[in-house]
Amino acid sequence: MGDQEISAKVAKERSEAEKARRKEYAEVKKSHREALVQGVYEQQRGFDRAILTITSGAFAVSLIFIEKVAPHPHPTSIALLIGAWAFFAVGMLATLISFLTSLAAHRCAIMDLDVDREHSARREFLGTVTTFLNFAAITLLVLGLLAIIIFAAINMTHRTELISAMTKG
User: Is 8 in the same domain as 26?
Assistant: First the structure.
């Protein structure tokens, strides 16, 4: 076997090895893409759903509390109730927007993968916005819950005072 034949054989083996590596890379890329698509679905059903459920529940509890326990709330506590509802409403809006930005970020990641791009500024921006909105939603939920707790404490005390005054008088 001559040098040219050996060189041709080595070149052919290298070419076949490169084809195998490319095929393996394509399979890994496809698997990663499928994981990203699944991430879109899981993101949709996870955090956002939980925050919306908790916030909606807090709204409902506050309405029931007003109806059953504090039908005539102490005047100074009404601002707390309105504030809590505002926190809940803005928190739900932040959650809904974060769902959209998360979905857009996942779509960018899928497009980046499709064109063999490792990183895009748009995807990074959307990820940052989503993270901010998620933290904002949690913070607003906590603030709303705190306002409801303070509202309830004030009105439980107010109710006790009213009952006490009615029994004495």
Answer: yes
- Number of domains the chain is built from: 2
**pLDDT at residue number 44:** 62
Task: Give CA–CA dist 16/11, Å, rounded.
Answer: 9
Tens-digit pLDDT profile for residues 91-108: 999 998 998 998 898 888
Angle at 97 between CA 92 and CA 102, to 5 degrees: 125
Same domain for 4 and 70, yes or no, is no
Task: Show the tokens assigned to 72.
Answer: 């005539």
Same domain, 58 and 83: yes
In this prediction, the residues of the chain whose per-residue pLDDT falls under 70 are 1-2, 40-41, 43-45, 158-165, 169
If asked whether residues 57 and 23 sit together in one domain, one would say no
* List of long-range contacts for 52-60, beta carbons under 8 Å, 24+ apart: 52/92, 52/95, 52/96, 54/141, 55/88, 55/91, 55/92, 55/95, 55/137, 55/141, 55/144, 56/92, 58/84, 58/88, 58/141, 58/144, 58/145, 58/148, 59/85, 59/88
Q: How far is CA 137 from the centre of its chain?
A: 8
Q: What is the pLDDT of residue 92?
A: 92
User: For residue 1, what pLDDT is reported?
Assistant: 64
Domain that holds residue 106: 46-168
